[in-house]
Amino acid sequence: MASATISPRSRKSPVGMIIVYAVMLLVTLLWLTPTVGLLVSSFRPGDDVKRTGWWTVFTDPATATFTLDNYRTVLGLPKEGQVVQAGQEINLGTAVINTITIAIPSTVIPILIAAFAAYGFAWIRFPGRRLLFILVVALLVVPLQISLVPILRDYLRLDLGGTYLGVWLAHTGFGLPLAIYLLYNYISTIPRDIFESAFLDGATHFTIFLRLILPLSAPALASFAIFQFLWTWNDLLIALVFLGAEPRVQVLTQRLLGLLGQYGQDWHLLTAGAFISMLLPLCVFFVLQRFFVRGMMAGSVKG
Length: 303
Hints:
With 303 residues, the protein is mainly alpha-helical.
């Protein structure tokens, strides 16, 4: 038998690898530059932000000054002795709590429902299974904007307008098609032998779902959790339509939009508010990112 030989072209060239790493580094720096500018500006006094660019912190560090007053102001924590007139307070803290109250249930509820549905489509035979799955996938191409008015009319009849429950249900309905599609493609690739062994041991479908499907589907669940959480966290349209503009229920995106109109020239406050809105999504992504690639590959390629 002839020995296998490795083609010279198949070997990685050191020069080629250096070029690849250089391009990756350049893209990373370009991608991070706006975020670094946002972070630096959020710690600079308002006069410095208006007078000089954020990069002067690095080009002329001797004149750079930093302060936490921007974050105190946007979080509704004024300095000692500072008097804030009624109606002029920003207080993003309440908006952050409202956004968390909406984002977490709006992420957990569709995941649980979609996991049950995906398991049923993948491993339970029932009449009309393929047709129902095709209908679910077809809902991916339906713009959510066309359904806002009909849903709002039904909410007004059911007294769900302006409530968190109405927003949870709306996000759940809009997120279910993608969730079912991703989880179905992952769950359907689990070996059938696992289920047959469980059935022989007397396990029911519910037991298999809890003991096998959920643990084995962690990558796909984490992938969708990232998408759904980021979507609900950054949502403005659904919150504006179903919650309204009352200050006590406003989410973070609504408050930032108000800041843009009320404090359009105060870039130091806008950057502080914008960076606050980025912190929790970044934490969620970094916690779940090790599952992200595996889950997305399973949800888009396999099946």
